[in-house]
Amino acid sequence: MPAPQPRQEARPLLEIVVPARNEEARIARGLTELCERLAALPYPARIVVVDNASTDATPDVVRALPPRTTPIRLIRCETRGKGAAVRAGLLATTAPLIGFCDVDMATDLAALDTVVRLLGAGQPAVIGSRAAPGSVVEARHSRVRRLGAWVFRALARRVTGPIGDTQCGFKFFHGDLGRRAARRLRTTGFAFDVELLAHVHLLGAGVREIPVAWRDVGGSTFSCWRHSWGVFLQIAVIWVRTRPGGRAARPRLSLSSDHASSDHASSVTA
Known about the structure:
Number of domains: 1
Shape: globular
Distance between the termini: 29 Å
CATH superfamily: Spore Coat Polysaccharide Biosynthesis Protein SpsA, Chain A
Largest sheet: 9 strands, mixed
Number of helices: 8
Structural class: alpha/beta
Oligomer: single chain
Number of strands: 11
Strand content: 15-25%
CATH topology: Spore Coat Polysaccharide Biosynthesis Protein SpsA, Chain A
């Protein structure tokens, strides 16, 4: 009797990166929601989970997900920081359309239909924007956090131009553009979105903001008190790096993986 052959996965049209650090409590629910949404699409898709040097059971939870139809690729990025994880994930993609979203699925995944339609029509970059007309935002933030967000947006616009919301974790690109922009990315912290969008602009691509339904989900690792000054400093560094005449050298990131059939990634069908 011939040995069973491994199932051949269709080449995905869309790959979505999900960065995760110590997300054992939330990642199963988030990935289940994403898998169900992608399974309903009329084209093949794949999820790339980037374990960002987790010290909890995050990668074990991903491996233990019950079989579904959407393949999940699990890789590990040893360089801490959401920017480092997103960069590693984007560079691990091969699909013609790529992007990333947050593990809490704070952005309603119904927006994926608009994303794919616009990318397919030739728009090179499409990002969710809570500032776009028609967006529905459910959030309760303190006055201090709202003030900090206003200052951040004002500073970010010095780098990215008139983008209303640089920080919504729902960004998608033509594959070649996204990988080229990610290759130039140096910021590993929370302000990485600003540098990524700056590189998209420097590469001559336009960015389309779309309205989204977004809800504030508990469990965020961002602290206004602990991270704000560091984020403002990151914006200043990004501005220097991406201004005319600035240099955006390639960062050194450590990317490793635990895998059953490749040196660089593990694949889970979920």
